[in-house]
Design goal:
By secondary structure, this protein is an alpha+beta fold. It contains 5 helices and 14 strands.
Length: 277
């Protein structure tokens, strides 16, 4: 059996503003000479609710990186609602809302094309099960450079939508902003009146590289943070995989920091400053 110390998976946005590093052991990748019981936590019964939370967290991470890779600070985040006259109802509610959303997306494409801007979008609908509340949709769109305020966006998109009101907030562009937005996009499942997340075909997935690390027996809880980056403490953690193996999830973001620093995952703080590179 071929054994390697551990696996490292690195994902990043194309501008490398956000870098996500996952380090973990599994059955095939663990410190040499170590028995499974020495590194693996005893198997626990996972409740359906815990499993749902894990799956939602993974879905949120995936969607957050897609958002971060395709949208920038200032991109409009839309909540699209129906007025009383156009409110769909009945057994065909989901089909009707999705059709309306597709038509809205088509009109947005034509409008963006006239502005000389390529449209990218991520969208989902909510409350599409009868009795679950008023149906509406959420979208994040490519930025329109000539539009500066939420109110300007609202006037433009409400006119294009034509079936009610559109509320707009501008996406902040940081990893935490992407994660919060993604969490809202995936917060509802089908049974709760939600629907599957939909990205336009021209949205690009983040770069991803996975490799076996052989140069050391195990990963350290001390992270050497590269020059020009900081550790997003809110999104970084050390824990266990679904299989019970130790793992690390590290989120780095670009900043103006000129020194290389060391971050301690156990303490949740920077330990020292290194000399300038």
């Amino acid at each position: 059996m071929r054994v390697v110390p551990y696996i490292q998976k690195v994902r990043n946005t194309r501008d490398k503003k956000i870098i996500v590093i996952d380090k973990y052991y599994n059955f095939m990748a663990r410190p040499k000479g170590k028995k499974l019981k020495e590194i693996r936590n005893p198997k626990e019964n996972v409740s359906p609710e815990d499993l749902k939370k894990r799956n939602r967290r993974r879905a949120t991470e995936r969607v957050a990186l897609m958002i971060a890779n395709n949208f920038v600070e200032g991109s409009p985040y839309l909540t699209v609602t129906y007025d009383k006259e156009n409110l769909p109802a009945g057994e065909e509610l989901e089909t009707r809302v999705k059709k309306d959303l597709r038509n809205f997306e088509d009109r947005l494409k034509r409008f963006y094309k006239k502005q000389g801007v390529e449209l990218k979008y991520a969208a989902t609908v909510e409350n599409v099960m009868s009795g679950s509340g008023r149906a509406h949709a959420h979208l994040v769109l490519s930025i329109l450079p000539e539009v500066k305020t939420d109110r300007e966006y609202e006037r433009i998109f409400t006119k294009i939508w034509g079936k009610g009101h559109v509320r707009v907030e501008q996406y902040g562009g940081e990893a935490t902003d992407a994660t919060r937005l993604a969490a809202y996009f995936v917060k509802q499942e089908k049974a709760d009146g939600g629907a599957r997340m939909n990205f336009s075909r021209n949205c690009e997935p983040p770069a991803e590289k996975k490799k076996e690390i052989r140069r050391s027996e195990s990963f350290s809880h001390r992270i050497n943070v590269p020059k020009g980056y900081f550790v997003n403490k809110e999104l970084t953690f050390q824990g266990l995989t679904d299989g019970g193996y130790p793992c690390q999830h590290i989120v780095l973001e670009q900043c103006e920091e000129k020194d290389r620093r060391i971050y301690d995952l156990k303490k949740g703080e920077y330990l020292e400053r290194r000399r300038k590179a």
